Amino acid sequence: MRKCAQLELFRERLPRKPYYSDELTTGLRIADVARALGARYIQPNGPTHRHWIVFDVDHAAATLSWDDVGAPAPNITVTNKANGHAHLIYGLDTPIRTAPDGNAAPLRYAAAIEAALREKLGADMGYSGLICKNPLHEHWLVQVWEPRLYDLAWLSDYLDLSSYNGRKSLPEYGLGRNCTLFEKTRLWAYKAIRQGWPDYPEWLAACVDRASGYNAQFEQPLPANEVRHTAKSIAKWTHQHLSPAGFREEQARRGAKGGKVSKGGGRPSNSGKDKSDLLPEVLRLKAQGYTNRDIADDLGVLGIFRPKTTKCSGGPAVCGLQRGITFFEIPIWALFE
Predict the structure, then answer these.
(1) pLDDT tens for residues 78-102?
(2) How crowded is residue 257: how many other Cβ atoms within 10 Å of its Cβ?
(3) Closest Cα partner for 174 from 116, 115, 133?
(4) How far apart are the C-alpha atoms of 302 and 10, rounded to whole Å?
(5) Confidence (pLDDT) at 335
(6) What are residue 89's DSSP bridge partners?
């Protein structure tokens, strides 16, 4: 096979020890890259980052299906010579972190784009994305189309994301599973850590156990190491930022206000304060069950964002989705990155 920049990049981005297989019916194995590259199927992404978005199109004209529906050109197509079925591979110039540290807005944006592009292509929703046809193996017909890597905004130009605006949860396949897993686990963690304030090893084990339970509910569960990385990210963050002292201080502060969020003159002034400075306070209040509206009102940050009836204009990095997401429809902490 002749050398190609996209194929060389695919090789460079492979996990250190990817899953691989020659026949899917015999199951998956794991080995170093050199061994895995000799197999027909290989794991394209590692457990913490998504470098490639892969779609499985199961019909005889799959290789050019993107052109038929006006979708962006894939970087690589890997086609079964016998039946025409193909994997369409899109490369990202900036990989998406699937185990986010506090801010899941970019992950949610990527998940919405993936879901919309899957629908546009008519790709298989049951495809887990864990392994793909190996574009470096001679068994397949491999073609390179778009020479440049995509950013999410470029992909979104081809898509209608309106059906994903304002949803509290995305479809539970592809990156949508990562979003759901992160949301469920971190909401549980904010409250559960107060039950005895466990040491980190014990807390990490509890987070992994909880995340694994949520993962088992998916029709196509995420790989165990991906679940562990997500749980570890949440365990580390909550253990570092939530503490008994901070909780007591917050209880005392709220007790002085009569046990409920102030709506009047006691509101602290945050003029001139950067939004990121308020994040610890936001998370403390959120962990105690206060609503986004009450938290924003109490901290005096309501004016920073558009009201609920107005579309957010802050862009994908702020809104989570490019169009139609409003302040109170996504987790408040996601706007403080």
Answers:
(1) 999 999 999 999 999 999 998 876 5
(2) 14
(3) 115
(4) 45
(5) 41
(6) 54, 76
